[in-house]
Amino acid sequence: MARIEPDFELKTPSGDDRARRVCNTCGFVDYVNPKIVAGSVTESADGRILMCKRAIEPRKGFWTLPAGFMEEGESVADAAKREAREEACAQLELIDLLAVYSIPRISQVQMFYRARLADPSIAAGPESLEVALYHWDEIPFDDLAFPSVRWALEDWRARRGRTGEPPALRTQGEDFAPREDL
Amino acid sequence: MARIEPDFELKTPSGDDRARRVCNTCGFVDYVNPKIVAGSVTESADGRILMCKRAIEPRKGFWTLPAGFMEEGESVADAAKREAREEACAQLELIDLLAVYSIPRISQVQMFYRARLADPSIAAGPESLEVALYHWDEIPFDDLAFPSVRWALEDWRARRGRTGEPPALRTQGEDFAPREDL
Prior knowledge:
The structure is a homodimer of 182-residue chains. In chain A, 14% of the residues lie in helices and 37% in strands.
C-alpha cells in the first residue's frame, strides 16, 4: 500500500485574509502562528552561567542556553523551567523576565528569564552533549548556537546586579542584528 | 464526490515524547504550540482608554481591548499595532510592555503593550460593532469579553503615570484567577 502523505497547497480559506497551507488530500487547513521559545540565563551560586552543548541539529556541537519550544497547557515560566530540567537536569528558581526577542524571519518569539540554580547539581540531558558553568570570560562566544544566545548573554550582563527593570525588547532585523523594539 | 476531510487521531510520533494529532487520511502531524495574542491598552491625549465592542464570536457584543493572534513574519510590537489598526482603525505609538499573561487552559500567551493614539481618529473595523474612548469610571466592567481584558486594565491602572517598570507577569490558575508568575 502506498504510504499516505499530506499534499499542501497555499490557498486563502473563505473568510480569511491571507493564504494558508491547505491539504489537497484531506482538506486540513494548517493555521501556523509564531512559536514561543522559553529559556533562561541561569547563575550558579558563584555567578557562573549555565550553558549546554547541543547534541541535536540544528547547530549540533555548539553552545546554547537552556531553551526550547513552549508546549500546550503550560505557562512561559513553567516552560523555561522544564527546558532547563530536560537539557541540563537543572532545577531553576526564576528571578525575573530578562528579554523578549521577536524573530520574524523564522516566526519565533523567544522569552528568556533570569534564574538561579535552586540546587547545584547539573548534568547533560538527552539533547545535550555536555553542560557547563562558565564565568563571563570563559563563555565560548565563537561557538554559540544562535544569535539570540549572544543577545541574552549581553542583556544579562547589562542588567547584572539590578532588578526591577523592564526586559530587553528586541526584534531581529533583515541584517540579523537586533534592534530595540517596543 | 465525497468531500475530503481530515481524520485526526492522537498518537505519539517516533522520536517524540508526547501525543500529537496525526491525520489518518494524509499522515500529517499537527504540532500545536501555544499561540501569542498581542494587544494594547491605548490612551487618547485626554487619558481615555480605547476599547472595542466585538462584532464576532466568541463573546460578540462584549467589550475588549484591541488584541489578536500574532501572524507569521511579524514582531510582537507590529502585531499589537496591526490589531489596533484592524479593529479600531487606530494608529498607535507604543510606550512599553505592560503585561505577559500565560493562559495554559487555552494554550495562549497574551502580551499587552501600553500605547497612545498617534492620531486622534478611530473607527470600528470589520471585527468591531463600535469603538469608544472611556475614562476609567466609564469602562463597561460588567460587559468585558475576557478575564484578561480586566487584568490588562487593572495592571494599566496600577502602573499609571510610571514608566521603566517590569511588566506584570501572570498565569491564569485553575480557578480562572490570575496569579503572579515569574
